[in-house]
Task: structure prediction
Amino acid sequence: MGTRTRGQLSLVEAERRRLQAADLFEQGMRQSKVAEVLGVSRQAVSLWHRAWREGGSDALLSTGPGGRSYLSAGQEAELEVLLRAGPIEHGWEDQRWTLARIGRLIEERFDVTYEVSGVWRLLDRLGWSWQVPTVRAVERNEEAIAAWRTETWPAASHPRRSQPSAGGSASRTRPGPG
Result:
């Protein structure tokens, strides 16, 4: 059996706690007192109380370990193969994987939905990292970039250096010497 850190409950223990809360609700105990007695947050008790009010004690029974919210080891290996094939292979016109695109790929291929942050954690766990593409754009013109850096940018970043002084005033109320 796996080890748990402090604060984690098994599904059975968590269900038992929720059912205790249902008993206390039936006795008319206030939600804040239930939270105190069971050592849980008021927010958790509020959610339990709403579920209990709408569906009785049965609404607090465990539904298992979260359904299909995670990929199996085999699916993760298949995802890595799909990612290595590249975004173009999956219908995108550029060579960039984004978290949203990967999430969409996972949903379409495995019928599992991840939030963007979940995709990030999954990729991190699989050893993928955020990277800038090493391949430059096909349209990139090195000569035009060099000309822009040496001619256009200096003039645009320091407009006063390239213009002779007009000798005017920057004030709207006081005209310059005339």
